Amino acid sequence: MLLSVVIACTVFLLSDYWFDTLSGQSTKAARTERGQKSEEMARKLAALIERGDARRLEAFMEAAVQRDDEIVSVGVRQASGQLMAQTAKHAGAWRAPVSGLSTTDQVQVPINAGRELWGYVEISYREMPPPGVTQWLSQPEVALLCAALVLSLTLWLLVRRRS
After folding, report:
1. How is the chain split into domains, by residue range?
2. Contact, 90 vs 124, CB < 8 A?
3. Does residue 66 surpass a pLDDT of 90?
4. Is 31-130 CATH 3.30.450?
């Protein structure tokens, strides 16, 4: 009976690993989450830019970096290329995407003034680790299932040893 449970759990864990790692699901999910987070931040920053509140703009950017461990730096660049505002580490962390398109780690959100491009919000995120066993094992569901598997096997061995 226990052997069946162990085999079923092993098959589940291996299939989950294969799906997450080989299909790139975790990378896609992170990319989507970072995109949504970046767009929301750009909306808030655009409102502060529109009001001309430079002090609050920089304070908001610094607070975002402090609050979110994934964000390394934030900058606001006008379409002319002039950096209007930035957090402390932005100059060293920001690498403009070569293709002009955002990457998983370097996100650039356009800000428009009417129909014209006003500039960009630049957000530099921590590098994502390559998909692998350690990233997969760090997922709470997998860790819980592994712990339950080890505990069950340990209890079974203890009971079997006494009989």
Report:
1. 1-24+139-163, 31-130
2. yes
3. yes
4. yes
